[in-house]
Design brief:
Layout: H1 8-11, H2 15-28, H3 35-52, H4 57-67, H5 74-90, H6 94-100, H7 107-121, H8 124-137, H9 144-157, H10 161-173, H11 180-196, H12 201-213, H13 221-233, H14 237-245, H15 252-264, H16 268-282, H17 288-302, H18 309-326
Length: 329
């Protein structure tokens, strides 16, 4: 990066004084042997002033264009050229920015070019390609979370949900500012993947972390039910039970999950009572939840020391009748 450590006024944040002093020196002694160094101080202080006062950016452009006419080492020249391009970009002069980036291959130049193509040409595919390349090169031009968030939006626009999810999660890890609705979208995305492969603990952990992050916004039982299922997959049975028991008016599905959680904890009596309650609550209509509760409750009762065979048989008979009814015309 461009060093400002030798500039005493600049080190004290007296950028404007430094800038004026440099101008006076260059006007008085343009051919002095120290002039190239003073030019560097002038360009540096001009850049700092522009970061504080955006209206100074027009002057910064002219300062940089004059400075870049001096014979500079290639590496240093590329850094100042990048600052010139970045200033053009910030002023929405995208064509000029891209011209300033010609022959530059650095990570930051690649990212800046990708931003120009996105904002000037609305070329999302090219933006994604170049931004990914810049990330792989280790760009430091802007906050990483911001880059990942931008890629998330671009991939969504391109209907590439998997890539969008990948970058939204990276933005989340980088602590970027993300809308809760987008985080819940990501949590649902991972939850649906977990349903296809319940042994994928990494995805379950990601989904749980996202739901937990949004816990204050989890209105209604649906998302809390999903979080409870994730807790069970991750072996966090106590957390699942606490969450399900706190639901004010749980659905039949949530009650069934609670009963299953109680079984995992060895609380058989409580689980059996809850299974029976679900069966009664579901009534005689066709209900997969009620059928699951009847079957799992019957299994628990059969495992008891003195099972009620008549009661269990009646419960299973009703279950068979219901199954036959569902298969009818």
């Amino acid at each position: 990066s461009i060093s400002l450590s030798l500039v005493s006024p600049a080190a004290e944040k007296l950028w404007e004084s430094c800038y004026e002093n440099c101008l006076q020196f260059l006007n008085a002694f343009p051919q002095h042997e120290l002039a190239p160094f003073v030019w560097r101080y002038l360009a540096s202080s001009s850049a700092e002033i522009a970061s504080i006062k955006p209206e100074h950016k027009v002057k910064l452009l002219s300062d940089l264009e004059l400075f870049l006419k001096l014979p500079l080492p290639e590496i240093e020249k590329n850094e100042w050229q990048l600052l010139l391009a970045k200033t053009f970009y910030e002023m929405h002069q995208y064509e000029q920015a891209m011209l300033s980036l010609q022959n530059q291959q650095s990570a930051n130049a690649t990212l800046l070019l990708s931003l120009c193509l996105r904002d000037q040409n609305k070329d999302m595919a090219r933006f994604c390609e170049l931004a990914e390349e810049a990330l792989s090169k280790g760009t430091t031009l802007v906050d990483l979370g911001q880059i990942h968030a931008s890629l998330y939006n671009a991939y969504l626009e391109l209907s590439q949900r998997d890539q969008a999810a990948k970058h939204l999660y990276e933005a989340f890890l980088a602590k970027a500012e993300i809308k809760t609705e987008n985080l819940l979208w990501l949590a649902d995305y991972y939850f649906n993947l977990v349903k296809e492969s319940e042994g994928n603990f990494a995805l379950a952990a990601r989904a749980a972390a996202l739901f937990e992050h949004c816990k204050a916004a989890l209105h209604g039982d649906a998302n809390l039910y999903k979080l409870s299922k994730l807790y069970l997959i991750l072996g966090r049975t106590d957390d699942a039970i606490a969450l399900l028991q706190a639901l004010p008016s749980p659905s039949h599905e949530a009650s069934l999950l609670l009963a299953q959680s109680l079984v995992k904890k060895g609380l058989i009596e409580q689980a059996t009572e809850l299974f029976d309650s679900i069966v009664v609550s579901c009534g005689t209509g066709r209900s997969p939840t009620g059928a699951a509760a009847a079957l799992q409750g019957a299994r628990l009762k059969l495992a008891q020391a003195h099972p009620d065979f008549m009661g269990i048989a009646a419960q299973l008979k009703n279950l068979v009748m219901q199954k036959n009814f569902e298969g009818g015309p």
